[in-house]
Fold this sequence. Notes:
The structure holds 2 protein chains of 2 kinds.
Chain A lengths: L1 H22 L2 H17 L10 H19 L9 H4 L9 H16 L2 H11 L5 H8 L3 H18 L15
Chain B lengths: L10 H8 L5 H13 L1 H21 L1 H4 L4 H8 L10 H12 L6 H4 L3 H17 L9 E2 L3 H12 L14 E9 L4 E8 L5 E7 L7 E8 L4 E7 L2 E7 L3 H16 L2
Helix pairs in contact in B: 1-2, 1-3, 2-3
Amino acid sequence: MGSRRALLIAEIPHLRRYARALLRDPDIADDLVQNCLERALSRFHLWQPERRLRPWLFTIMHNLHVNAVRYRVSRPPLVELDDAVMPAAGGASQEDSLQTRAVLAAIDELPEDQRAVVTLVGIEELSYKDAADVLGIPLGTLMSRLHRARERLRETLGMAERRPAPIRRVK
Amino acid sequence: MTRKPSPPISTDDLHGYADGQLPPARAAEVEAYIAAHPAAARQVEDYRAINAALHRALDGVLDEPIPAAHMDVARRRRPRPTLAAAASVAGLLIGLAGGWLLNDRLSADRPATAELAGRAAAAYLVYAPEKRHPVEVSAADSDHLKAWLSNRLGMTFRLPRLSELGFELVGGRLMAGNDTPAALLMYEDAQGRRLVLYVSKDLPADGEHAMRYRRDAAAGVVYWSDGSNGFGVSGDFSETELMPAARVVRSQFSAL
């Protein structure tokens, strides 16, 4: 039991990061995480340790999020970027922070389902299969959403039309 | 060097390459492809830049201290009643201190749910001692039992499996609820100890009410509600013995 709790606690930062990507407002995001933890705990006996915990938790959170969105009359106002964006880890240059804002703003413009895909794959680094399972969609749907989301981001961020490709250091 | 012909490089491959999700052989093919196709190379580069920017924007969350409320729930032995008012939690504590004499007025418990707990306990007291006719339809006929109760209650009825907790289904029966049919399932362990699950659909549909436990002279009950569906798991058991069974029941019915 103790070790299962420890595993759960280790996942909390990841749940919070994904919730923040989905909802942006830190308080609303943490409420979602809180509900997710409550739900996960009430079903912990159903989790099989052979299954990885993170996709299992993300699935619970995704379902809670979808239900909340469905029942919410309107989307809560997105908070100002300055309130939501975390100080980037390490000393980010001003250019970095500008880019960060632009990326977050562009992510917000995406349809809900695309935002989830691009985040699960892009930062949570779930396998395509796990991400599709979390979202309850076929792999093919996941791939086409991922493609639409990224192409749209390229466009919004002015990446697609630059010619020739400027040198950008990418690790 | 000759190779088996492999499928042409698709956009899926470019994403897979950018995300590091391709098997090495395929990754090598994509690498060769993008070396010869600048547009594809830019795509891959941009996808990676987007991932990196997302990391920069959101990784700070990982370093934040975990909010105390999250830690509380992760360490708690049982889920906190999410929708119950703080007053009812206080009331529950008072009830605990009073030797399980949970006073409904003190606890600000929802009257309808508390009333359902009484019905569940009564059903246990009436039917659990029955030797010859504890149920109308036995577990041997579980498909019929499930279909029958589903039809009469107008819901997808489940026969939760409690074997892992040492309880086997004996069977079930139809009951009279307040306005609508209700259902009773009975379970028994190897020592012949019984517990019942009482389900009715006649509660005011006002959301989800968290699990609570109460005990009077002969039976303990864990009860909760979900919309108009009310559930009570009752038997001559302590809270710690009843709660796991109640959790299994709840998860089975909430997965509807």
